[in-house]
Structure formats: structure tokens, C-alpha cells
Amino acid sequence: MSTPAALLPIAAVERDTGLSKDTLRVWERRYGFPVPVRDAFGERAYPPGQVDKLRLLKRLLDAGHRPGKVVPLDLASLQRLSQGPVTADAAPELACLDLLREHDVTGMRRQLHQALLSLGLERFVTEHVAPMNVAIGTAWMRGDITIAQEHVYTEALQLVLRQAVGSIPPAPAGAPRALLATLPQEDHGLGLLMAETLLSLYGWHCIPLGVRVPMDDIVRVATQARVDLVGLGFSSSFNPQQALAALAELRARLPATVTVWAGGINAAWRRKLPDGVHAIVEIAEVPGMLKTVRPSCPAVDP
Hints:
Layout: E1 8-9, H1 10-17, H2 21-31, E2 37-38, E3 44-46, H3 48-62, H4 67-70, H5 75-83, H6 91-101, H7 105-119, H8 121-142, H9 147-166, E4 177-181, H10 190-201, E5 205-210, H11 215-225, E6 229-233, H12 240-253, E7 259-263, E8 277-280, H13 285-293
Helix pairs in contact: 3-5, 6-8, 7-8, 7-9, 8-9, 9-10
């Protein structure tokens, strides 16, 4: 017996909305939405009305809204929010853009530090930095800020995150190990630093190789260091076919015991990923995925 035609299985919802399975499960636990039914095999399946709301939620998240503010809202409220003026929820993004337009580097750093102190490190990364990145990227594409101003934001954020990582106690002996890098065609490394921050916070030992790292070096270091996880970052500009081919090669060259993550927003994730490769589209998915890498690592149940 298959899933009824009126319902969409979770894999189809993931492809259709761009929201990962892990995000759907986290929202289900944290916010009580979506509310799936179970098919004959016990798998989650979703009615069309819920899928419509999930699509709208994804658009609002891409516009910089926070999950905790919008997921609990009903469909009518979400539709009004998507059509209306900028709300107070987007105020931090607007303040950030104002600082960048004024080239106020000190103010930019101060705002980030204040948000970090207010939210704590994990929420700062998942609820403040992630939507801020979207807002900055959108502003640059629209021509509202220059590439130089975007770089000011990136440099300020990297400084704040590296200082935060440096204040985290070292991982204990025997802690799980993660290698983080991008391939030679990719020079965007902010997502790697965000992932390193969360992994370090949860007691992982991270080996950040940075950007534009040859495949041979990634495989060699991962093998020599006996890592549990290799995470590669991909921006939206990375060629999807090249991304999938590189991931397939990496998966084939690494021991089966090593988990491979592909992070970032890329069209490749809408296609079939190589077996043994997991896409991490939203940084908030990282903590919940850690238990799938090594069961003994710190549990996360938002």
C-alpha cells in the first residue's frame, strides 16, 4: 500500500519546498507544525495545505524572517506578512544595512557582539547570522550595497565568530572530529565558519582547511586525521553538475565510516545526491544531525 495521492511523502516535500527533512522534523517538535500523517510504512506524509504553507514559510525565511516568529503563524497571517511592509522582525537586518551604507565598521562589530551576548552562541548563528546573510546577499544582488560593503560585513562577522570559537573549551580526548573545507572552485567560506562554531560548541574537534582546497588534500588530511565527518561548502554559484561529481568522487575515496556533508544553498541538492552524502541547507540543521554521525556525541532535542 502506497501513500494516498492527496498526500506527499516527506522526500517529495523536501524537493518541492527546499526545506530539509531534518528541518521539518525539528519544526514538528519545536513548533507543532507541520503535522504529518503516517503512511502504511510508518513514514511521514503531508496534506497539500501544509505543503502550501511550507512553501510560503521558505520564501519568508529566505527574506530574512526567523523560524520562531513565522512557523507558528496561520496561513492567512503568513500571506499578509509576505505581501506587507517590512516588520520589526527584520529590524536587525535593516540596522545592519544602514551601518554598512555608512561604512561604520565599529558599529557593525558592536551590533554583532550585542546580538551574540543577547542570544547566546547557538541562537546567534542560527537565528541572527543566517537570516542576516540572506538579507546582505539580497541587498547586494539588488545593488543596495556594494561588494566592498558586503566584504565589511563578512570580515566583521568572521572576527566575531573566530573570537567566539576561541573562547570555547577545547574538545576532550576522543571527541568526534570534523574536517571542513571548500573545493578549488569555491571561495565562499562563511558557512564553514558557522558550521565550525556549532560543531565546536557541541564538543567536536574541528580541522578547518578553509577555501579552495584540492580534493587530494581533503582526502589525505581526512584519512590521516581519522575524521568522523567531512563537510564541504557550496554556494549557489557552484556548478551543480560539478558539485555532484565532486561529492561522488569524495564519497568513493573516503572510508565508509566517514560521513560526508554538503552544506549551503545549491541547485545540486534538488537532484539525487550520491549515496552516503547528506545536504545541509540550513545551518540550524547541524546540531540535530550530529547524532547521525556518531551516536555518542552530545544529543540535541530542540
